[in-house]
């Protein structure tokens, strides 16, 4: 499952 990976990647991304 890549759900956790996707969430972590989104969290790492800078929120504009």
Verbal overview:
The protein has one helix at 3-12. By secondary structure, it is mainly alpha-helical. The model has no long low-confidence stretch (mean pLDDT 88).
Task: Describe the secondary structure blueprint for this structure.
Blueprint: H1 3-12
Mean pLDDT: 88
* β-sheet strand percentage: under 5%
Separate helix tally: 1
The parts where pLDDT drops under 50 for at least 5 residues are none
Mass-distribution shape: rod-shaped
Q: How many strands appear in the DSSP assignment?
A: 0
Q: Bin the helical content.
A: 55-70%
Q: Largest sheet at a glance?
A: none
Give the SSE order as H and E letters. H
The first-to-last residue Cα distance is 28 Å
Radius of gyration: 8 Å
What structural class do you assign from the helix and strand content? mainly alpha
Brief description of this entry?
By secondary structure, the protein is an all-alpha fold. It has one helix spanning 3-12.
Pick out its properties.
mainly alpha
